[in-house]
# Entry
Amino acid sequence: MSRVLVIGCGGVASVAIRKCCQADDVFTELCIASRTKSKCDALAEALKGKTKTVVTTAQVNADNVQEVVDLIKSYKPDLVMNIALPYQDLVIMDACLICGVNYMDTANYEPEDTDDPEWRAIYEKRCKEKGFSAYFDYSWQWAYKEKFEQAGLTALLGCGFDPGVTQAYCAYAKKHEFDSIDTIDILDCNGGDHGYAFATNFNPEVNLREVSAPGSYIENGKWVEIPAMSIKREYDFDSVGMKDMYLLHHEELESLAVNIPEVKRIRFFMTFGQSYLTHMKCLENVGMLSTTPVMFEGHEIVPIKFLKALLPDPASLGPRTHGKTNIGCIFTGKKDGKDKTYYIYNVCDHQECYKEVESQAISYTTGVPAMCGAMMLLTGKWTEKGVHTVEEFDPDPFLDALDKYGLPRRENFAPALVD
Ligand code: NDP
# Structure
C-alpha cells in the first residue's frame, strides 16, 4: 500500500508511471502532476481499466517551492518521484524536507540559467577545484545530506539507467565478483534508428548540453578533462554490432569515485552516429545550443529552447525507432588473488518497448529503473536515511526487480576490453 506523487509527465515519467501501474500491489495510489495538466489527464485516461492503481492528476509548477509544498500537503504521498527536469531538483527536495516526505530523481541538479552570476561564481570555483567543467555536479544535492538525515528521510539521486543501473552494476560487481576493482568502463550504446536526420532521444536541452560539453574521466583520483568528442573507440556490442563511441563526462563518475575509491580509472563512453555529430557541431557553431537569451524581432528567445521547439518530441519517436540499446559496465580487478574481467549489461529493443508502453527504449531504460528504485524505497528494501546515489544501496533486490520488470541483466566473463 503506498501513495506516490510523480512530478513530470514527459517521455521518462510516462514509462515510469505505466510500469508503476503494472506493479499495482505496491503502487496503490498515484498522482501525476506536471506543468501541463492535459498531458497528465491523457495518460490517466489511457491507463483507465488497465490497472488497480488509483490514478489522479494535478497541475504544478515545480519551480515554485510553495506550489510543490501545497500539492504534497494535499495529496500526502509516501514518496515524491521527481521525473521533471534537473532544474527542479532543489526546489522539490526543499518541498520534501518541509513536508517530511522521501524524494527521488533521475538526474542531478543543473541550473536552467547558466548565466546566473550567483550560480556562476560557485560553478567557476568548482571547475578549478575539481577539474571538470560540466554544468551539473552532485555538490548541490549532497549539501542536503545532513538535513535529510536529521529529518529521518531518504533522497535517492539519479535512479535511471545511467546514472542509476550502471551504479547498481558497480555495487553488484564489488559485492559478488571482485575483491578489488581496478577499472570501470561504462558503455552506453544506442543502436536504434528513428529515421530522422537529427533528433534527441530524451529532453533535447538536457541531452545537447550534456554531449556538447568537454569529456572527462577519473584517473588515480583526479579528473582528466578533454575536448568534447576527442576520444573515440570502436566496440562490438552484443545484439547491436560494431559502433563508434566517444568518451563523455557523466554524472555517475563523480559519485563512483567517492563510493568505490580503490578504482584507478573510471570512464564513460556513448555511441553516436556521424549524422548526429555533424548536426550537433553545426548547431553549436552557429550558436543554437546557447542558453543565453538573444533578442529576435522584439522578442527574447533562448536559442536551445527554440531549437527544442523545432526538433521532434522524444516521446514521438517510439513508433519510428527500430533496433536495440546495450548499456553496461566492464570491470577489471582482482578476485582471490587473480586478475579478473567482468561485463554486466542490458540489451533492450526499441520496438518491444513501444509495444509494451508506447515509448522508445531510451525512455524505457530510464523509466523502469525509476519505478524499481521507488519500489525499493516503498517496500523497505532501501532504508538508509540521508542523500544517496544508487551504488550506496544493496544492488541485489534492485537488479532482481529490473530482471522482472523488463531490463534483465546479461553477463560476460571474458569481454573485449576498451583500450
Ligand atoms: P521531458 O522533457 O520529456 O519531460 C519533462 C517533464 O517535466 C514534462 O512533463 C514537463 O512538463 C515537466 N516539467 C518541466 N518543467 C516543469 C516544471 N517547472 N514544473 C512541473 N513540471 C515540469 O524529459 P524526459 O522525460 O526526457 O526526462 C526526464 C528526466 O529524466 C530529466 O531529468 C532527464 O535528465 C532524466 N533522464 C535520465 C536518464 C538516466 O538514465 N538517468 C536518461 C534520460 C533522461 P511540460 O509537458 O509542460 O513540458
About this structure: The chain has a mean pLDDT of 96. The first strand starts at residue 3 and ends at 7.
